[in-house]
Write a structure and sequence with these properties.
211 residues; 0% strand; 8 helices
Length: 211
């Protein structure tokens, strides 16, 4: 059941607040220089190899992934398009103002802060229920047509993405592993709290970007 129209303003505010916060969390992880989140390994590798910014590559990759939705017959929403564009553009703005840390404990502080921020942000934009992110729709579409479990498909996609990004020069490190281990447990208890009332509570698999 969809949320009543009177809840639409809250859903939109929650969606865009979540996307901006997600970009902030990504930027903190990048500035920590301990390994970026899985899809950013690819974005960073592409930026280092071919130029352009990490944020612009995030938008470009999201657009390519959306093309894969066509044969998968996934249906985008306003949240899908917003996810594809907003996160990448805002990420570049945060990277332009956030300094790079040199002290190891500060770097880990940035990394943990980034992971926590991405977790809260993911629960917020998923809970708005205005459409999955491009990468999430790729995952759910492949789950549907292959019959494989979410965990197998998600892991397979991200292994390919991380390996490709690392080969291109992306920053794969302990922070990447920490993100993979911690992000699910962070999002799980927050989803019921941030899901718009009147909608069935989503699962982590429905839209946790980067899981």
């Amino acid at each position: 059941m969809s949320a009543p129209p009177r809840r639409l303003p809250r859903r939109l505010v929650q969606l865009y607040a979540g996307l901006v916060a997600f970009a902030l969390g990504e930027a903190l992880c990048i500035r920590a220089r301990l390994g970026v989140i899985p899809w950013d390994v690819l974005h960073q590798g592409l930026a280092r190899r071919f130029g352009l910014s990490i944020g612009l590559w995030s938008v470009i990759v999201a657009g390519v992934v959306l093309l894969a939705w066509v044969p998968l017959r996934e249906r985008p929403g306003v949240g899908t398009v917003s996810n594809a564009v907003v996160i990448g553009l805002v990420l570049d703005r945060f990277l332009a103002v956030l300094p790079t840390a040199d002290t190891l404990w500060v770097r880990w502080l940035l990394m943990v802060g980034g992971i926590l921020t991405v977790g809260v942000a993911s629960a917020a934009y998923i809970g708005a229920r205005l459409g999955p992110g491009p990468r999430d729709g790729l995952m759910t579409g492949l789950v549907r047509i292959t019959g494989r479990s979410v965990r197998v498909v998600r892991t397979g996609i991200e292994v390919v993405v991380v390996i490709a990004g690392w080969a291109l020069g992306g920053n794969l490190g302990l922070g990447t592993l920490a993100f993979a281990v911690l992000i699910g447990p962070i999002i799980h208890p927050l989803l019921p709290l941030l899901t718009v009332p009147g909608d069935p509570a989503p699962t982590v698999e429905e839209g946790a970007e980067g899981l």
